[in-house]
Every structure is written in structure tokens, then in C-alpha cells.
Amino acid sequence: MVLVPGFFGFANLGDFAYFGHVRDLLAEIGPGLGIDGEVRALRTEPTASLPRRAALLCQGIAELLDEAPGEVTVVGHSSGGLDARLLLSPGVELPTPADVEASARAVRAVVSVSTPHHGTPLAQGFGSLLGQQLLQLLSLATIRVLRTGRLPISLALKLARVVRSPGSRPGGVVDQLFLELLADFSADRRRALEAFFANVKSDQGLLAQIAPPGMDVFNASTQDRPGLRYGCVVTRARPPGLRSLWHAGLDPYAQATHAMFVGLYRFASATPEGWRPRLTTAHADVMRRAYGRIPGPDANDGIVPTLSQVRGDLIGAVWADHHDILGHFHEPTHVPPHFDWMASGTGFDRAGFEGIWRKVAAYVARPAR
To answer: N or C: the chain end with fewer CB closer than 10 Å?
Structure first.
């Protein structure tokens, strides 16, 4: 099983494990379901164009097949699910010397998790110069939180103000916050992070492509591979309000990071007027069981509209934000600890995490059609 990160996708930058909890759980439960082999997270370039990211996925699969021939299941979080769809589209040409068709033929199933199959309005906000700076700042803050458990409260409050009202803050303020966060790391780690973000800054092609207009083009030009199973996991956060605030927690740090989440949620809710993807009866039934009713077009997980994530077999729908689903929720006493990227107030916990990923493993283990 290969795990493909999305556009916050630092995969494994030093000891920052994007998929750490997912990888460990799948490796633990897979053999009991008949899934043999390795679970491996692949590196990607977070904001590179979809053809570039799909080419990197192709190369990663080719390297695995060189090590040991066999079948591959791709699990893509966020835009990682789009990378897989593009690689597997029949006749696709990608910028790589690797054999695209050989890599694609080895894939037996694809699972997309919180993937913007119909785009996300948030990508349009990140497309401006200030938006790109903000994306880097949020990525660095996420890396810091997953490593240490939380940000300094003063930085969390400043970041919350920027995220809630980015247009009112000059780029210099964002740059200064970035430098303050960077200063908390060792010299060696700072150099690694600086190199990482320099690479991110050099290729921003993904952002326009995963905005709703870009995904209209992608969906019109990308075909599913016949006979391949495509499954999805859908996430939804609670709309910001007293309930989400209460679930987030009442300490000042939780309040500050909840304010960041509110800003992201509002950006992600700005779907085009009248937009609603076509749902099957099976899709509708799963979401009604999970949420009580079919979510509206503005419902989202803080990054991607919930209905934008629906495509193929709907494995499960959960109350979780965009990074909760990866194990980045608040449960610091678990071994290893779970640290929340920001307090969204979804109530997602270890039991929910294990439940949904067991469903993913069971779907992967099913015999091919």
C-alpha cells in the first residue's frame, strides 16, 4: 500500500510523519485481513502541478516494483487522490522516464481520502501572492504542532488573526510570523525547512488546478481505468458556532486555533452558486447515516467541501476535519501521541480513527472485480 500526501504534503520531513499514525495502524491490521506486504508513504512536491505529482507517484511505484514485483493499492489524502486518478487514466502521458503503463497496471485499487474531486474554493484564496505566503505559514505551523504538540500561545493568536482576515494583513506580517516559527527549530532543521519551502515556492501549479474551474477541466479529460476499484472517504467538520467552540475546548490555546479553523472553514464554504455534484442512492444513504442528512454545498472539513470528496464507492463518511482523518487530533496520552493540527471541535478521536481506517483496510482486502 502506498500513501500519497496532499498539498500540505510534507510526507516525512525529518521526523515529521504526515502519515505516521495511518501507516502504523494499517501495518498492524492489514495481515489479519489478508493484506500482505509493506505500507509505505511516498514523497511528493506539495504544490507542484498534478502531472508532476502523478509522475512522482509513477516513479515511486516503479521503484517499489523493482524491489519486489506485486500488486499496489494507492491511498491518496487530499490532492494525493487526484495524483492517483491522473496516473491511472488510460493513455495518459506524464513527464517521467518511468513506464507509466507498467506502474498503472500494478494498481488494484485506489482510495481517496478528503480529496477535492470537484475542487476547493480555498485553492483560489491561496493562489494570490499573500495566499501562497499564508499556505507556507500554515504548513510550517502544522509541522511545528505535529512535532511538539502545540504552538506558543502568542504565535497562535497572531496566526489566528492573519487567517481570519488575511486581506487586512500585509505580506510582511505573514513573513515575520514565518520567521518567528522557523526560529524555534535547530539550525540543521531550519536549513531543511528552508530548502523544502523554497521548493514549494518554485512550483505552485497545483493551486489553480484544484480550484473548482480547474477540476471541471480535470474531470472532463481524465477517465477511470476499466476494472479498477475507486473508493473514497468523506470528512466533514461541524459548522463554526457555539457547538464547535465547546468541542474545541475552552483553554486559550484551543480558542486561538479554533479561530484559525473558522477562517479556513469560511473560505472553503464559498462554493459556486447552484453547485452540487451528482450523488448515487448509495452515496446518499451513507451520508444520511453519518450526518443525519445530505450535507449542503457549503459543508466542508476546513479545507475541502464535503460533497466535493464523493466519488466512486463511498467507504465511509465521518465527522472529522481535513487532518483529523490522518490521526492529527487531540489525544496526547495515546502511545504514540496524537497532536491536533488545530482545534476544529469535530470530536473525532482514536476510536473513530481506528473505525474508519479498518473500513479502508477491509475495502482494500476485498477481491478484485
So the answer is: C
pTM for the model stands at: 0.89
Q: How far apart are CA 354 and CA 348, in angstroms?
A: 11
Distance CA 272, CA 212 (A): 8
| C-beta of residue 78 within 8 angstroms of C-beta of residue 114 | yes
Using an 8 Å Cβ cutoff, are 17 and 23 in contact?
Answer: yes
Residue type, 6: G
What are the tens digits of pLDDT across the range 205-231?
888 899 999 999 999 999 999 999 999
Residue 52 belongs to what domain range?
Answer: 2-123+206-365
- Residue 206 dihedral angles phi and psi, to the nearest 5°: -65, -35
How many domains does the chain contain in total?
Answer: 1
Rounded to the nearest 5 degrees, what angle is found at the Cα of 22, between the Cα atoms of 256 and 163? Answer: 20
In a domain, 176, yes or no: no
Phi-psi map region of 229: left, alpha, beta (phi>0 left; psi -120 to 50 alpha):
beta
Q: Say what the alpha-carbon torsion angle 312, 313, 315, 320 is, to the nearest 10 degrees.
A: 30
Cα(192)–Cα(13) distance, rounded to whole angstroms? 8
